[in-house]
Task: inverse folding
């Protein structure tokens, strides 16, 4: 089931789902790298229309923005970049920089004096308010602000930069020469180099405010949308520490560090970073007089709220509640309805962990709409839908609600929520047992392009919704016996969400469940048993259930029963209806396997009532199957047959292959049983029909490799052929049975006593 | 050149080692004095002024030597003689802070002394340039990036010498300093330890070591030379690590062996007493120190803190004027003046002076914290938070700043939020009752009474400074209708107050007596009840209640109701207020169940 993740609820770098770092005033200064970029711009301006081909010019223009925004890079790298788009220009840039660096201070000063020329004239090369124009003007301004010693320092820095670039290019050529040099000198050089390298690594140079902001917002949105593309936690932390070393007041870095620490589940550091961020934010809030006291109080409220979020994420619900209470109190005192809205949503998230509290949520949605917070409102609607789906509301109402919120999403282009909405629809259809619809929704999500792609080349982000949809897809394929396709999907999942990323648990569980089912079908119970631990680690309830199933299959009835009873009580407490019904079915199976089908009946009826109430069609039809089987055992095959006719349609339409096979097998059994009292002619007819059905069942079972079931079917067919006197067919079936029986000997369980 | 360099070290060690290697005991004070005088001279020659000052001060506190025992100056070696001219010139330049010039003329000198001065000049020149650079760096983000450019070269050269074992004690010290500046803490510690082994008398090396050691565990694993200097070092580091008891013990030993006149030791003791909040003792020691050394500026900020706490306005004003006359551009002076203004409730001016102190030395930790306090007084919480955060940035172990942050958020009515900060403060000072009481109060506000009780009890157990923990605990028990425990707490509280015999009016005394009177009354212990009721009458706010209770008791007694014998009477008000049979609980480790970082 798609869950609405807590992290979506609040993130101060985000308004209405859009991540952006705090944009301060422009603070930029001249560095040697910037000079090189300026030279490039100047050259581009000077080489008129004809000199550079249109293609090259386009490539250059594409290159410019990352150059202007990105961090400083070495000269050789810059050359390479320019060369890739336009070799001719790279050459002239190189010459200009060489002239400047090897010339005098005067050259640099002259260069800056000439820069402003590009604005003059009737038709200036650069428009003043364009991106490039702004950059140029910033640089000119920053340069003219420099004092004498600073100018000189800049010039020496430029020379240094140039020489380093030269050295780099020369180094490659020198390689062979160097290898022939005497050992000692090389050693010495290496020693020095190593110490220099160390430092180079430890501080890759200061970023200007703009560059730092760009870096932060990029990493933050990557963390949110596509974790695998962001820097690894360790290297990101290193970058942040570096940034903070140069400018301890850069509060956003602390927040990113908090997010980063969340990734690695480090409570201590993340608390520390979070509080540090808000301590710092309070300062900047107070400094900027625009909001005055208001801005300051605001950050206090959000500080408490975020602390609550943090505790909630680490599962400290009591602590989270205390923090939330604090946030609510402060927000109430200052009449901040928006903050209160956030608090309300969180209150729901916290309440969800203990009991259902949809009243809160309804309030939250209403208020959020009232205060014009579309993100919060539709997030609330989605939570509500999720909750209602579990509570057994009809699909049409849920779909209506989702449709309404979808309108909201498209209006405000909240692409993230659109994704969630579709993933949720997939999950809901799946819950209601409509595999076709679920399949269709999952496919739709996967073939949709994201509205806000982080990397221009990639159309989709790796968010939770995609993971959920892909997992459903894998399970759906596995159900239909397309194991190759399922494993293909899982392989894709593994690539997109590497094992240590935050959504990896989803596919891990899905993978193990599929493996478990296959092992059970195959009758490899020891294999299934070994998978149980893995499943338990990811989802304890599921794990216990599967354990019970394995025990049951291994004929350890009393243990299985004990486990199931415990699980039943627990699931009833936490109102996990889906699991309750599954457990009830297992319990019923236990009863009829221990030859007391009469006791199974009330249990099955209970399960049926529940699944009807919650409209879980998939489980309902499975219950009907069980019920019919119980009736068959009790000797009323006619009843069973009529019951089956009721259930067979949805099973054949939407059910898993295994269920289809079981249903057909059961139909055949009932037909045979009810044919006992018929006159011979009619009986033969009925038996023929049964054989047909058995063939169909056999096909289904073959799809999912259910050898045990196939064996039973074949045995049954052989008996039927025998009765009909078709010796040849009988012998064929008997031989098949013998083969399978050698492979999978049955241990004393009466063959017929199997659904 | 090569020949002489192999010979000379032998000579040098032969001449110097017998004097510089020092024994572990203090039996021979004359020897110690000789050593101190010698090292003072050596450090002065090398421009290590602070170490020189320290040694000289300590030497001054010992009795003077007769002429016959005076140490002849160490013999001049061949190398020294060669470098004499260059050294003399360079030292002159060095003294007028022309470091580059000094280094230039010392280049190529071989004697240890000249080499040290050469390297040291280069180091100082780099530092000076760094400071100058900071003013006009290219941009705000580059501020943190300004580095002492000389450090890397120095490190390479010194490490080569170090590997060749050509560094003497001073050289090692400089190498250590360079490593520390490059944030290579581990290597720096090793080198400093080596330096103390080679030249144990050089206080600078010990002091650097002090700054690098952050906890007791680290201290345990150091292999330090077994000399009398180690005692000074240990005492100093115990003070730094807030292990005040041990520090005081060490200093007392030092005084006992004959350093009683040392102003350094006296001041350190005063600081130690300040740290454990024994204000009276600290004050008297500081006053003594002022008499001995009236122009002393060091540690006067601590003194002013004490005067501030005791609200001794006139003394503080006198101190401020006095220091201002001596040198008004000293960090300590600014701090004292800041404290003075703060006491006069002129918080803006106080903040101004603390800012000035920070301009003089941005790493002066105390000023950040004090400035935070000032902003708190001015109700400027955001500025206060900023100041405290700065303090924490300078030193993460500054418990006062953490505590201050906690207080700020408490004022902003965020009790849960401030828990984190108080916990940090508590971690740093586990035995300080103030943090515990603050934690308890927060828990009480959050209605987590179990945790609150633990905190208060712990605060009492570690020795409550403000004597409020027990009352708060009692009130909590009262609230939870655990009357027995409440009564017990009140009894302990009263015992506590009477036993320390303070005259200070305790507001809660009447509350305690009133509760006890009621409690005994309920238990039908008439005698005790009436004693308490009589006590109640001594206070204004409970007088009427006390009288009423007395009347009731009298009435009930007259009715002939005998004190019920079956009623357990576990507690008696200590009539003589001597310690009686109240069971004393052991200090249990503070275990807050829901503690998360």
Result:
């Amino acid at each position: 089931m798609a869950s609405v993740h807590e992290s979506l609820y609040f993130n101060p770098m985000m308004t209405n789902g859009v991540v952006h770092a705090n944009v301060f005033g422009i603070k930029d200064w001249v560095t040697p790298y910037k000079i090189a970029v300026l030279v490039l711009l100047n050259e581009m301006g000077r080489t008129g229309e004809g000199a550079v081909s249109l293609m090259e010019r386009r490539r250059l223009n594409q290159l410019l923005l990352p150059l202007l925004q990105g961090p400083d890079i070495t000269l050789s790298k810059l050359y390479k970049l320019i060369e890739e788009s336009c070799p001719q220009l790279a050459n002239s840039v190189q010459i200009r920089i060489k002239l400047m660096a090897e010339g005098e201070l005067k050259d640099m000063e002259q260069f800056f004096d000439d820069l402003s020329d590009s604005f003059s004239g009737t038709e200036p090369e650069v428009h003043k308010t364009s991106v490039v124009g702004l950059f140029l003007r910033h640089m000119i301004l920053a340069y003219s602000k420099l004092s004498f010693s600073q100018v000189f320092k800049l010039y020496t820095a430029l020379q240094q930069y140039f020489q380093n670039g030269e050295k780099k290019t020369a180094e490659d050529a020198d390689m062979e020469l160097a290898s022939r040099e005497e050992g000692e000198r090389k050693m010495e050089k290496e020693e020095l180099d190593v110490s220099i390298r160390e430092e180079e690594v430890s501080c890759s140079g200061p970023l200007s405010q703009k560059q730092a902001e760009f870096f932060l917002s990029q990493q933050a949105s990557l963390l949110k949308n596509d974790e695998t593309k962001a820097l690894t936690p360790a290297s990101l932390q290193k970058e942040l520490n570096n940034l903070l070393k140069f400018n301890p007041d850069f509060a956003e870095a602390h927040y990113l560090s908090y997010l980063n620490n969340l990734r690695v589940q480090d409570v201590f550091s993340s608390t520390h970073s979070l509080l540090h961020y808000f301590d710092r934010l309070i300062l900047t809030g107070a400094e900027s007089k625009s909001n005055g006291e208001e801005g300051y109080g605001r950050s206090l409220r959000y500080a408490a709220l975020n602390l609550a979020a943090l505790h909630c994420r680490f599962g400290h619900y009591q602590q989270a509640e205390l923090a939330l209470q604090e946030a609510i109190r402060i927000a109430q005192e200052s009449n901040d309805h928006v903050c209160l809205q956030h608090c309300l949503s969180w209150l729901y998230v916290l309440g969800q962990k203990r009991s259902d509290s949809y009243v809160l949520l309804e309030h939250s949605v209403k208020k959020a709409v009232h205060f014009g917070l579309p993100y919060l409102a539709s997030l609330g609607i989605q939570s509500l839908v999720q909750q209602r789906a579990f509570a057994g509301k009809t699909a049409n109402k849920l779909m209506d609600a989702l449709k309404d919120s979808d309108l909201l999403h498209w209006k405000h282009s909240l692409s993230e929520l659109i994704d969630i909405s579709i993933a949720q629809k997939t999950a809901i259809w799946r819950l209601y047992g409509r595999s076709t619809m679920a399949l269709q929704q999952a496919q739709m999500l996967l073939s949709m392009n994201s509205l806000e792609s982080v990397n221009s080349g990639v159309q989709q982000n790796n968010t939770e919704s995609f993971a959920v949809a892909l997992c459903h897809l894998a399970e759906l394929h596995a159900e239909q016996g397309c194991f190759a396709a399922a494993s293909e999907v899982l392989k894709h999942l593994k690539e997109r969400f590497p094992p240590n990323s935050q959504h990896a648990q989803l596919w891990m569980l899905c993978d193990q469940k599929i493996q478990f089912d296959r092992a059970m079908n195959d009758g490899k119970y020891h294999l299934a048993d070994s998978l149980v631990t893995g499943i338990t680690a990811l989802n304890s309830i599921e794990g216990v259930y599967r354990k019970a199933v394995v025990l049951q299959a291994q004929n350890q009835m009393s243990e299985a029963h004990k486990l199931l009873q415990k699980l039943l009580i627990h699931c009833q407490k936490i109102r996990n209806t889906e699991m309750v019904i599954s457990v009830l079915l297992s319990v019923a199976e236990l009863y009829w396997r221990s030859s007391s089908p009469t006791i199974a009946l009330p249990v099955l009826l209970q399960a049926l009532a529940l699944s009807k109430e919650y409209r879980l069609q998939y489980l309902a039809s499975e219950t009907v199957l069980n019920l019919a089987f119980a009736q068959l055992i009790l000797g009323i095959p006619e009843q069973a047959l009529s019951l089956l006719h009721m259930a067979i349609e949805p099973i054949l339409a939407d059910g898993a292959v295994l269920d289809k096979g079981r249903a057909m097998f059961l139909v055949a059994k009932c037909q045979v049983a009810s044919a006992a009292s018929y006159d011979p002619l009619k009986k033969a007819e009925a038996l023929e029909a049964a054989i047909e059905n058995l063939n169909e069942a056999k096909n289904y079972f073959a799809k999912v490799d259910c050898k045990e079931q196939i064996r039973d079917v074949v045995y049954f067919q052989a008996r039927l052929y025998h009765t009909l006197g078709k010796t040849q067919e009988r012998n064929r079936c008997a031989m098949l049975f013998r083969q399978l029986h050698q492979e999978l000997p049955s241990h004393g369980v009466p063959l017929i006593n199997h659904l | 050149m090569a020949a002489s360099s192999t010979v000379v070290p032998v000579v040098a060690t032969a001449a110097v080692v017998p004097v510089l290697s020092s024994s572990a005991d203090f039996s021979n004070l004359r020897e110690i004095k000789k050593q101190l005088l010698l090292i003072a001279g050596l450090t002065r020659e090398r421009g290590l002024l602070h170490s020189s000052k320290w040694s000289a001060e300590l030497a001054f506190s010992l009795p003077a030597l007769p002429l016959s025992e005076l140490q002849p100056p160490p013999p001049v070696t061949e190398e020294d003689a060669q470098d004499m001219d260059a050294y003399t010139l360079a030292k002159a330049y060095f003294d007028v802070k022309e470091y580059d010039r000094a280094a230039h003329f010392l280049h190529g000198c071989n004697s240890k002394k000249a080499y040290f001065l050469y390297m040291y000049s280069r180091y100082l020149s780099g530092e000076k340039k760094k400071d100058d650079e900071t003013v006009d760096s290219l941009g705000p983000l580059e501020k943190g990036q300004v580095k002492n450019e000389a450090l890397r070269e120095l490190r390479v050269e010194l490490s080569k010498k170090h590997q060749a074992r050509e560094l003497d004690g001073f050289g090692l010290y400089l190498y250590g300093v360079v490593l520390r500046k490059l944030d290579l803490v581990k290597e720096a510690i090793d080198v400093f330890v080596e330096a103390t082994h080679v030249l144990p008398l050089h206080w600078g090396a010990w002091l650097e070591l002090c700054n690098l050691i952050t906890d007791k565990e680290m201290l345990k694993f150091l292999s330090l030379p077994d000399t009398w200097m180690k005692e000074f070092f240990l005492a100093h580091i115990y003070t730094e690590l807030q292990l005040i008891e041990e520090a005081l013990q060490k200093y007392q030993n030092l005084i006992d062996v004959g350093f009683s006149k040392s102003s350094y030791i006296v001041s350190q003791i005063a600081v130690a007493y300040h740290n454990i909040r024994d204000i009276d003792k600290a004050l008297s020691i500081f006053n003594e120190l002022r008499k001995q050394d009236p122009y002393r500026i060091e540690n006067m900020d601590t003194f002013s803190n004490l005067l501030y706490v005791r609200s001794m306005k006139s003394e503080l004003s006198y101190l401020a004027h006095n220091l201002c006359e001596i040198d008004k551009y000293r960090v300590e002076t600014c701090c004292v003046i800041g404290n003075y203004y703060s006491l006069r409730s002129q918080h803006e001016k106080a903040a101004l002076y603390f800012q000035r102190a920070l301009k003089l030395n941005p790493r002066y930790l105390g000023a950040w914290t004090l400035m935070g306090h000032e902003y708190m007084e001015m109700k400027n919480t955001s500025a206060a938070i900023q100041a405290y955060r700065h303090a924490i940035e300078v030193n993460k172990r500054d418990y006062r700043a953490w505590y201050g942050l906690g207080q700020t958020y408490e004022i902003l009515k965020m009790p849960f939020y401030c828990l984190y900060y108080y916990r940090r403060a508590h971690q740093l000072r586990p035995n300080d009752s103030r943090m515990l009481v603050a934690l308890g109060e927060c828990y009480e506000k959050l209605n987590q009474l179990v945790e609150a009780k633990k905190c208060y009890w712990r605060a009492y157990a570690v020795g409550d400074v403000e004597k409020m923990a027990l009352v708060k605990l009692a009130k909590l028990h009262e609230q939870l209708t655990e009357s027995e425990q409440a009564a017990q707490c009140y009894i302990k509280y009263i015992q506590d107050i009477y036993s320390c015999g303070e005259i200070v009016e305790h507001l809660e005394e009447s509350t305690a007596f009133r509760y006890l009177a009621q409690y005994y009354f309920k238990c039908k212990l008439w005698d005790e009840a009436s004693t308490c009721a009589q006590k109640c009458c001594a206070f204004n706010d409970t007088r009427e209640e006390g009288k009423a209770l007395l009347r009731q008791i009298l009435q009930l007694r007259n009715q002939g109701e005998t004190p019920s014998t079956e009623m357990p009477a576990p507690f008696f008000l200590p009539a003589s207020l001597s310690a009686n049979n109240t069971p004393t609980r052991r200090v249990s480790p503070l275990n807050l169940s829901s503690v998360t970082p």
Notes: The radius of gyration of chain B is 31 Å. Residues 271 and 393 of chain B are 23 Å apart (CA to CA). The interface with chain A takes residues 136-145, 152, 155-156, 381-383, 385-386, 389, 393, 405, 412-417, 420-421, 446, 448, 594, 596-597 of chain B (CB under 8 Å).
